[in-house]
Fold each of these.
Amino acid sequence: MAGTNSPEDAYTAAPFVPDGADLGALREAAAGCRGCPLHRDTTQTVFGAGDPGARAMLVGEQPGDQEDRQGKPFVGPAGKVLDRALAEAGIDPGETYITNAVKHFKFTHLPERGKRRIHKPPSLRELAACGPWLAAEVELIGPEVIVALGATAGKALLGSSFRVTKERGTRLAGDASGPARGALIVPTIHPSAVLRADDRKAAYEGLVADLRIAAEALGRAGPGPWRDPPGPGRRRG
């Protein structure tokens, strides 16, 4: 049991994020993160993966059951939906970097569901605790466009007032003091919402349409008016 002076009581990953680390070192450090209590019951930290030089970064909510077991983001059914939608929108999934706002699987058990682990959304406090990892990934990748997949990712990148139903498919500038560091953000639904939708076809088409907004932004040469050019501190991983 965690004591009163345990690092997780502070709800911040900042002490675990090494300065000047590359992606490999950052991933290794994240494996030992105790920045909030979510690490206690999970199998492992699920860090981001993909092209370290990606122009497009995709941010989801948190790992699911399969991601927690395999240690990789978006390896379940939602990941398959996302890959198909990206390709249809004109973005090569192999040329993206994908991660989650929260790196540990938060879940609960329902008596009627047996031992199955049921997804539970992270709290704003847990989002804030994991923010330093996301900020470090953004700094290293230096993406031109960040796609926020769902409400939780949007809150992590744009603040607690974000509403995906109102702002999906738009181009927004991330708060310069937040994890997105002023980058262009295109919000959309989480691909798992397609799987839950009554009309999956319409939900999927909406996801593709939003991703096309990101594809169009990537097609624009040079830094646009929505963001400042990368400063000297921004690095390509």
Amino acid sequence: MGVRLMVVDDHRLLAEALASALKLRGHRVLAAAAPAAGAAELVITRAPEVCLLGTATPAEPGIFDPVIKIKRERPQVAVLVLGPVPSPRGIAAAFASGASGYVRHDERIEGVERAIMKARAGEAAVAPALLQGAFSELLNPASQPDDEGQRLLQMLTPREVEVLVRVADGEDTRLIAAGMGIAPSTARTHVQRVLMKLGVGSRLEAAALAARTGLLDRAGPVMRDGTPSEGPQR
């Protein structure tokens, strides 16, 4: 039997994609709402079994206030936080607010579904690797906080950064090739390399990951300093 779910995230593309994937797996998704500010009221009104609540900044003070409100008004609702690689502070804040678990935004749909089932059963839903990483960071703190967006950006060449920006803008292979002045086959190769480097399986996942980690916000300086294309610029 499917789970009655809600998906709430600031990035509508990610919310709708996740909701669609979960519907295909037999779950009843009540809503896929973009504005996180109204998340608590929406969840309290609809009263799902499990709510997936997205956040880009899990360590930011007050970011989990909606979770607190949901658990106060609807304690039976299990809230799963969906976010980037968290700091120990982020994980602690999520659970302190009453969340039932934490799922990385780049987790496969099977992993998300496992977390949903655990949360509905009243179990803590967090990957062992996340806990291990959190404890490692607490025991051996890094001199600078990890910036996933910057780390991912450093993996890409300036041209691949432009390809990613165009993918996020919804351009298909033909438009990417025309905009960059390259052959469609070359554009297709660039796209595949970007997907491989980011560790995602589709353009949609790449766009969602780039938006979630702030990678797109940092892409401008890289494209200006590098040599993003030989063709016409946008």
